[in-house]
Amino acid sequence: MTEDIITGIQRKLEKHLRPERYRHTIGVMYTAASLSMCHKGNMEKAMLAGLLHDCGKEYSIKEQKRLCREYKIPLTESELKMPALIHAKLGTYLTEHEYSIEDSEVLNAITYHTTGKPDMTLLEKIIYIADYIEPGRIAIPVLDKVRYVAFSNIEEAVALSAGSTISYLKKMGRDIDPMTIKTYEYYTKK
């Protein structure tokens, strides 16, 4: 992969995403690159997955659902109840079909960037955490601790992030995706 591919995708996303979403995307891309360097991952794949992780999020929820039906992307009951999760699967589809990225590691990292999953690959953990800790992220519980821990123990960072997400959703009286719970349980037992 060359720098030209990443630059071309950046230009396309800058036209497609709202400015604040684009800034977040660039923040995730560079945070993923930093985490990748720290944990000896593949920096190009981390940058690519970070850059494309929210490419399906700019559409309204109604449009995301319509596109999933059109593209025959199966949605779980949880995703239908919690439509904020849908953009991950739609983004994976768009990454493959609109941005011509067929690397399964990159596609899986995009798929699981919102919920995580047990036994994630290094790239999946990097994108999950980079989305949580990127510099533009508003202050959320345990953010500073996750930022600190992410560069020394990424698995602990995953457990902290998932736990914080679960606590927040419980406090707000919102549904929690079962995969987020499984992620938390898996990484707190490690």
UniProtKB/TrEMBL annotation:
<protein>
    <recommendedName>
        <fullName>bis(5'-nucleosyl)-tetraphosphatase (symmetrical)</fullName>
        <ecNumber>3.6.1.41</ecNumber>
    </recommendedName>
</protein>
<keyword id="KW-0547">Nucleotide-binding</keyword>
<dbReference type="Pfam" id="PF01966">
    <property type="entry name" value="HD"/>
</dbReference>
<dbReference type="GO" id="GO:0008803">
    <property type="term" value="F:bis(5'-nucleosyl)-tetraphosphatase (symmetrical) activity"/>
</dbReference>
<dbReference type="InterPro" id="IPR005249">
    <property type="entry name" value="YqeK"/>
</dbReference>
<dbReference type="InterPro" id="IPR003607">
    <property type="entry name" value="HD/PDEase_dom"/>
</dbReference>
<dbReference type="GO" id="GO:0046872">
    <property type="term" value="F:metal ion binding"/>
</dbReference>
<keyword id="KW-0479">Metal-binding</keyword>
<dbReference type="InterPro" id="IPR006674">
    <property type="entry name" value="HD_domain"/>
</dbReference>
<feature type="domain" description="HD">
    <location>
        <begin position="21"/>
        <end position="136"/>
    </location>
</feature>
<keyword id="KW-0378">Hydrolase</keyword>
<dbReference type="GO" id="GO:0000166">
    <property type="term" value="F:nucleotide binding"/>
</dbReference>
<keyword id="KW-0408">Iron</keyword>
<dbReference type="InterPro" id="IPR051094">
    <property type="entry name" value="Diverse_Catalytic_Enzymes"/>
</dbReference>
